[in-house]
Amino acid sequence: MKRGGFLAAAVVIAATAFSVWDAELNLSDISDIGNSFDFLERLWPLDFSMVTHSLKETLLTVEIAFLGTISALVLALPLAFLGARNTTTHRSVYTGVRTLLTFLRSVPELVLALIFVPTFGLEPLTVIVALFLHNTAVLGKLLAELVEAADPGPQEAVASTGARRLLVSLYGILPQIFPNLLSHYFYRFEVGVRSSLLFGAIGAGGIGDVLFLHFKTFEYSAMAVDILMIMVLIWVLDYAGAYFRAKVI
């Protein structure tokens, strides 16, 4: 191994040791792992008496994620063309759009949600707005990179007909990036569902809200059904996302 490799390994080991020490991790705490197994035993037998309500809240979680991400895609697409070097109308527009996207992307969804709690309260709309703003920035950046990487050939062919800039973008670039656009969207939708679950745990609605309520009221058997539904939901979304990505790419 070269000297640089030894140095890198030493830095990683030192950083790991410092992190363990500074976080005050105590490996002896693992001796209480039995408490976790006792908790898992309380989840059985499953209580399906509230399954209808849980299904309704699961659907709400999906709806929140969909509304937040699809609205983000609608805004992110024009911003992507304005924030791409090869399609922007002016250098200042490019800089302004990129700065806006970077700023919104740097603010976590949780922080965005907290900002809007005083306005909307702990309601689904708060989560939708947070997902909308954050995913607009993320999708805007990803799509802008796709626009910049688009093959100039089709663009030149459309431009040679005398088409304006908008038509060049619509017919020379959009068809090229559309498969990857869908791929990026499905991924952000999956992430949005996971984020909605976490927001639900703090009272913003959805299956995460129901899960945490059952936990607080010691209804562990009903909580087990919530966990099962979340697992099925994530599995279905992962499978559906992979299926659609395979179809469009």
From TrEMBL:
The chain crosses the membrane at residues 64-84, 110-133, 166-185, 197-215, 221-244. Residues 58-241 form the ABC transmembrane type-1 domain. CDD domains: TM_PBP2. The keyword Repeat does not apply. Gene3D superfamilies: MetI-like. It is found in: Cell membrane. GO terms for molecular function: ABC-type phosphonate transporter activity. Keywords: Cell membrane, Membrane, Transmembrane, Transmembrane helix, Transport. Its main location: membrane. It holds the Pfam family BPD_transp_1. It comes from the Bacteria. It is a multi-pass membrane protein. The keyword Cell membrane applies. GO terms for cellular component: plasma membrane. InterPro entries: MetI-like, MetI-like_sf, PhnE/PtxC. Belongs to the binding-protein-dependent transport system permease family. This is Phosphonate ABC transporter, permease protein PhnE. It comes from Paludifilum halophilum. The lineage of its organism: Bacteria, Bacillati, Bacillota, Bacilli, Bacillales.
